[in-house]
Amino acid sequence: MTTPGGRGFQLRYYIALAAPPIRAPAEGNEAYLRPEVGFNPNWFHRRCGIDFSERWHTDPVYRRETIRIMAEEIRRSFPGRAIGGVSAAEDPSDLITGIHGAAVVGGMFGMPVRYFANNWPSAHGPVLGDEEAGRLEPPDLSRSAFFQSILAQVDEAARITGSAKGYLNWQGVLNSAFRLRGEAIFTDMLEAPARAHRVFDAVAAAMIEGARLLYECQSRHGFEVLWISTANCMLNMISARHYREILLPYDLRLRRAFEGFGVHNCAWSVDPHMEAYASIPDLGYIDMGLASDLGRARQLFPRARRNLLYTPMDLRNKTWGAIRTDLDRIAAELGPCDLGLPDIEADVPDARVLAVLDYCAELSEKYGGRPPALPGARD
Q1: pTM of whole model > 0.90?
Q2: I need a surface site. Which of 32, 157, 253, 330 has the fewest CB within 10 A?
């Protein structure tokens, strides 16, 4: 792992309490099969009675109080387990990760944000018409009350905890373009490419400017962030050629803007886009679903921190024997890697989560630091 400050470094999967998943710098001592567990807001809403409406996303003092309650529930239900940054000694100091969920970029462009008592917020509202999309400009964040309130929260978090730690969920260029333009962004790519590029360019510019302003604010409080991660959840909606020719240049633009860079591919198969992702210099993170060619991913991304996203549906519905088989395959073919266990709902038994954590520890002990050889592999 190259450390922050060198060009390119590993990122690992990170889920703060009740926050959507994001990335954080790898420490270099990660377990061979490192699980990262995340419970969605409804899990905490039902167990702890926490209200995740607008106040949770705008009031760091209130958010800190709820984090203490959530941390205590994690300690009670999963004693001694590394979940959400909870330790036996103290509560997490991260008050930034998770605010406004995946609605940050939409909010920066002025989209209304809808909040829920038991779920993450969402940006919603009328989508851009043809003329609006064709003249879209990046937002002036110095005049954005929404974005300036985020910076004020960083200052407040640092005041009350001594730390400005945390990461916003910047989503990705196509994800946010879809929120702004709706389904028309896909026809734009084919029939009005100049309009599609206008939207993509504005989103990429907003992500870069927003991240830089946030990082400058955090740096003033002694917390350095040198990377960005993009979320390509919607790539299953387009062809590999369209990603490579139309959207990859924007991911490369994001990559050039920061020291470190990671790609969240979601729990889909990464196979159609694997070659394109492999062309991104010094990629520090890549994730994928179980249907992916895991051995090929290990070959193409030997220096990135790899992550297998295991869905909450599989965690809930598969037999324990089937889950063990999946974990055996992940360790053998993709490891060393993370095992992402995000969005766990209230109907998943604690015992199932504990069993997965215990078996990951067994596999990490079995494999140590070196993966088994794959046929034809040249790791």
Answers
A1: yes
A2: 253
Determine how many CB atoms are found less than 10 A away from the CB of residue 89. 5
Give Cα 110 to chain centroid, integer Å: 22
Provide the pLDDT for residue 86. 86
Nearest to 101 by CA among 122, 83, 118: 122
Q: What is the pLDDT of residue 3?
A: 43
Count the neighbouring beta carbons within 10 Å of the beta carbon of residue 174: 29
pLDDT (tens digit, 9 = 90+) per residue, 132-175?
Answer: 999 999 999 999 999 999 999 999 999 999 999 999 999 999 99
- Report residues of the chain scoring pLDDT below 70: 1-8, 88-89, 369-379
Query: Looking at the 3D structure of the chain, how many domains does it have?
Result: 1
State the DSSP code for 98.
Answer: T
Strands 11-14 and 22-25: antiparallel
Q: Residue 2 in contact with residue 333, Cβ under 8 Å?
A: no
- CATH of residue 194's domain is 3.20.20.210
Q: Evaluate whether residue 374 is within a structural domain.
A: no
3-class secondary structure for 346-361?
Answer: CCCCHHHHHHHHHHHH
Domain range for 323 is: 11-367
Asked, for residue 43, whether it belongs to a domain, the answer is yes
3 assigned to some structural domain: no
Beta carbons of 38 and 256 less than 8 angstroms apart: no
Per-residue pLDDT at 87? 74
As a whole number of angstroms, the distance between CA 53 and CA 351 comes to 29
